[in-house]
Amino acid sequence: MARRVRFAGYSEMIRLRCSGLAIGALLVAGLACIASSDFQHLCGPYLGQRLPGCTLEPFAQGLIEFSHSSIAMSPDGTEIYWAERTAGPMASRIMVTQRLDEGWSEPVPLFVGMMWSADCPVISPDGSRMFMNSIDPLVEGERETERLWVSERGEAGWSAPVPVGSRVNAFGLHWQCGVDAEGCLYFGAVPPVGGENDDIYVSCLVGGEFQVPEKLELSSELDETTPFVDPLGEYILISRIDSEGGHIAASFRTADGWTVPAKIDLGDVAYPVCPYVSPDGNYLFVLSWPDVYWVDAQVIEDARPMAAEST
């Protein structure tokens, strides 16, 4: 069955499946030009990279130096964001490249002069907001504290980021967050009072303010962090710390709540974190330092029966 598509422009890929269909037949014309490391010579979506199958493959290896985050994309797939560590005026900065008629633009940093640290960009499903992690102090002399910040997109571009609010940032936040189509934030954190493990919390936007976060009951005693939530709230992907290092797990929403998270089979990749699904729903990306990998998103559906059996 063809996979559903959330935006136009990717019809040449929606029939890609793990049933043995030749990937090469579905490549966008002109991908031979990806041999150049110059972004303007990269052709087609996803930086002109060869589309993966059911086995994890490095994404944009040699083109992008991923240090601490996965990628994020605009809803139409024409912008790709990521974070990199620097030795310059910003300890960590968010980069962006845009797909143009002749290729992709050379990456440029965002929020220069506005922030000292900007990490793990996450774009809202409607493209109007960018959430990020930052250790920027709110007052002079404050110790480094991870908080979630948000930037609004207007006609002039992205606004200067501001903290999302004390109800969320009172938690011991860590790393990547997720956001659904209703504007609810999902994040891994230790509660302000009590608790030692990272759990997944959700805070929804009501009247322009994020509400007191609520813990998702995912029936696990493991540390859980770096969530990605499906825009329609049908499933959530999390990174879990276990005796073997860690893995990505999927929990699916049912009429009775969330299923017990089931491990996604990603092969032998080491300590995958920061899961992200492309806006068209076709590909899963994960960070396994120092690279980002991608794979056909069918691996998520493959975990659904296991999650149902554990519930």
Description:
- This protein is mainly beta and 311 residues long.
- 5% of the residues lie in helices and 37% in strands.
- The chain has helices spanning 166-169, 298-302, 304-310; strands spanning 57-58, 72-73, 79-85, 92-100, 103-104, 108-109, 119-123, 129-134, 147-154, 157-158, 162-163, 172-179, 185-190, 199-203, 205-206, 209-210, 214-215, 223-229, 235-241, 247-254, 257-258, 262-263, 273-277, 283-288, 291-296.
- The strands form six sheets. Strands 2, 3, 4, 5 and 6 form a five-stranded antiparallel β-sheet that branches. Strands 7, 8, 9, 10 and 11 form a five-stranded antiparallel β-sheet that branches. Strands 18, 19, 20, 21 and 22 form a five-stranded antiparallel β-sheet that branches.
- A hairpin with a 2-residue loop joins strand 24 (283-288) and strand 25.
- The longest helix has 7 residues, at 304-310.
List keywords for this structure.
311 residues, mainly beta, Neuraminidase, 5-stranded antiparallel beta sheet, 5% helix, 37% strand, globular
Report the span from N to C terminus: 26 Å
Number of separate strands: 25
> Sheet with the most strands?
5 strands, antiparallel
Number of helices: 3
Q: Beta-strand percentage?
A: 35-45%
* Residue windows where pLDDT falls under 50 for at least 5 positions: 1-37
Q: Would you identify the CATH H-level superfamily?
A: TolB, C-terminal domain
| Helix content bin | under 10%
Oligomer: single chain
* Spatial extent as radius of gyration: 19 Å
Shape category: globular
